[in-house]
Amino acid sequence: MGVKVLLIDDDVDDRELFTYALSHVSSDVTCVEAIDGEDGLRLLRENSCNPDYIFLDLNMPRVDGVLFLEKIRRDRRLRDIPVVIYTTSKFQNDKEKCVELGAVHFITKPTTLTEIEAAISFVLERKWEPIIH
């Protein structure tokens, strides 16, 4: 059985580029997309999506990435899903807050397809130590 990824990002271009890169990384990965944190919570709570990983943008309307993290960490069924922050934010305080909330990895959105593929591969191949043990 393949890997399932939930991508939560409000930018349609970023979602398209991510899913395109993901398809080049592995044909055995399914990606479900959510347009913001509220949509992602709905998918998770309705059991429409049981992902192995969540790739999460931070800056989104309605429910942003930090609030999303806070909400799933309080949910017994959802709190152990590895969340990878995938954002344009380069602020150290954003990274620290996400680590505090249990994010396992933080990726500043790369600008080239090759860089995106490498970042996705790095996570999916588990060549990283989680920030939080």
The percent range for helix content is 25-40%
Structural domain count: 1
Low-confidence stretches: none
Major sheet size, sense and barrel closure = 5 strands, parallel
- Termini separation comes to 26 Å
Share of residues in strands: 15-25%
CATH fourth-tier homologous superfamily: Response regulator
The radius of gyration over CA amounts to: 13 Å
- Coarse structural class: alpha/beta
The CATH class is: Alpha Beta
What does the average pLDDT come to? Answer: 86
Shape: globular
Number-wise, the strands total 5
Element pattern in H and E: EHEHEHEHEH
User: Would you tell me which CATH topology applies?
Assistant: Rossmann fold
Strand order of the largest sheet: 2-1-3-4-5
CATH architecture: 3-Layer(aba) Sandwich
Number of separate helices: 5
Describe this entry's structure for a reader:
The chain is of the alpha/beta class. The chain has one domain (3-124): Response regulator (Rossmann fold, 3-Layer(aba) Sandwich). 40% of the residues lie in helices and 19% in strands. The protein has five helices and five strands. The chain has helices spanning 12-25, 37-45, 65-73, 92-100, 113-124, and strands at 3-8, 29-34, 53-56, 83-87, 105-108. The chain has a five-stranded parallel β-sheet with strand order 2-1-3-4-5, with helices on both faces. Helix 3 (65-73) links the parallel strand 3 and strand 4. Helix 1 packs across helix 5 and helix 2 packs parallel to helix 3. The longest helix has 14 residues, at 12-25. The protein is globular and about 35 Å long. The protein starts with a strand and ends in a 9-residue tail after the last helix.
